[in-house]
Amino acid sequence: MKATAVDIQNYLPHRAPMLMVDLILNIDSSSVETVFLVEDDNIFVQNNIFIEAGLIENTAQTCSAIVGKKYFFDDNGIENENVNVIGFISALKNVKIHALPKVGDTIITKADLVSKFVGDDYTLCTMSCKSLAENQILLECEINLFIQKTVSVG
């Protein structure tokens, strides 16, 4: 499935002020590309600079879109109602931060699936990631994610 300019909130449980991705530019079963505009009221902006923790959160949310989509949509693309998931970064490897973007910069983050293990209610995956702003590499890393479907108590 290939999508263009999809609202990331269709694939993640994150909401403001912790939402660090604006749109999914492209997504399929093994890669994702997102866009994010750094605004001055972002919780990860200090002295007009988007700090390292923000770049890592942007990368994690980009990666989570591939894994999260399985929980929010069925195999036919029909949205699953009332789904709750929880996710964790289980490891960051080979992190290289080359530069930090400023307020007003647009970050393009690309992630490719390296490996994935799917259990009944959870998924473990490793992603290779790169973030850029105007052709300047900001961040490169591998990220391991653990995402689990949770039970709603009602």
Quick summary:
The chain is built from one helix and nine strands; from the N terminus they run E-E-E-E-E-H-E-E-E-E. It has 154 residues and is mainly beta.
Plain-language structure description:
There is one protein chain. With 154 residues, the chain is mostly beta strands. It has one domain: Thiol Ester Dehydrase, Chain A (Roll). It has one helix at residues 52-72, and strands spanning 3-7, 23-27, 31-37, 45-46, 49-50, 84-97, 106-118, 122-133, 136-150. A seven-stranded antiparallel sheet has the order 1-2-3-7-8-9-6, covered by helices on one side. Strand 2 and strand 3 form a beta hairpin. The chain starts with a strand and ends with a strand.
Tell me the layout of helices and strands.
Layout: E1 3-7, E2 23-27, E3 31-37, E4 45-46, E5 49-50, H1 52-72, E6 84-97, E7 106-118, E8 122-133, E9 136-150
Antiparallel strand pairs: 1-2, 2-3, 3-7, 4-5, 6-9, 7-8, 8-9
Order of helices and strands: EEEEEHEEEE
**CATH architectural grouping:** Roll
Tally of strands: 9
Task: Based on Cα principal axes, name the global outline.
Answer: globular
Give helix % range.
10-25%
The total count of helices amounts to 1
CATH homologous superfamily descriptor: Hotdog Thioesterase
The low-confidence parts are none
What percentage of amino acids are in beta strands?
over 45%
How is the largest sheet built, in terms of strand order? 1-2-3-7-8-9-6
Largest sheet: 7 strands, antiparallel
Structure class: mainly beta
Question: What is the CATH first-level class name?
Answer: Alpha Beta
- The gyration radius over C-alpha positions equals 15 Å
Average the pLDDT over all residues and give the rounded result. 83
Straight-line N-to-C gap = 33 Å
The structural domain count equals: 1
